[in-house]
């Protein structure tokens, strides 16, 4: 009996090892190259208040503003106006910034949320760059908390630092409102993030993150994932380059209209997490110095 159990254990371990080898091979073979840092001709301009075309700046130019805010938007006609009203109202009250102009960058093709944010990052003017979701789930004045989080990380190595908004403090409340199945999916996703990619950050998916200009340039220039799991790879890259990261609790309210379908979206993100780890581990993806956009 003991011999039979030992044989089963050995067989199981061999099958698991074979499966990991097979998955690693698939991850390596199917690894796409880093998306080209390329703008279509139409994406190099924005329309000013007079309806005239103006050339967009580059993140590799010297900053001309203290803060840029990047808001990715796809079919957000209902939620975006409310968020923009709150953001602009807040910025106009802060003499430190002022709202200046809203610049709309229309992408020729759908690049995914991560790809859209990256295009906005590469056209930003700010010394600091905030990414925020179009649903307005995080109250915009909480940017002050992120600013303090960045300040507390000083001195910044090579002027690089990141402050991540976090909903981890709301976990107990969210569990009480979720089904057991969704709670299980949430814990499973958090475990995979911790085990495969990012240590020390409890909430990688909050869409409210503040970067120094140098940190945004370094991380987004190295990004491969353009869909929903891009946040995890972004923080994986930041930790690889030893960029200091602060996780800051923010106010957050769930807003109806999410495009994520819990089971299938989390299943896709789970696969992306595994492939992120395997592709870096096998050398299919490599982290290099910052690239400039062509």
UniProtKB/TrEMBL annotation:
Please provide, in alphabetical order, the Gene Ontology terms of the cellular component aspect for this entry.
Answer: endoplasmic reticulum membrane
Q: Name one GO biological process term.
A: protein N-linked glycosylation
Location of the Glycosyltransferase 2-like domain: 87-217
Instruction: List residues traversing the bilayer.
Output: none
Kind of enzyme, top EC level? Answer: transferase
Q: A Pfam family this protein belongs to?
A: Glycos_transf_2
Question: Which pathway is recorded for this entry?
Answer: Protein modification; protein glycosylation
Q: Describe the reaction catalysed, as an equation.
A: a di-trans,poly-cis-dolichyl phosphate + UDP-alpha-D-glucose = a di-trans,poly-cis-dolichyl beta-D-glucosyl phosphate + UDP
The main place the protein resides is endoplasmic reticulum
* Bilayer topology: Single-pass membrane protein
Q: What is its EC number?
A: 2.4.1.117
Tell me its family.
Belongs to the glycosyltransferase 2 family.
Q: What is this protein called?
A: Dolichyl-phosphate beta-glucosyltransferase
Q: Which organism is this protein's natural source?
A: Aotus nancymaae
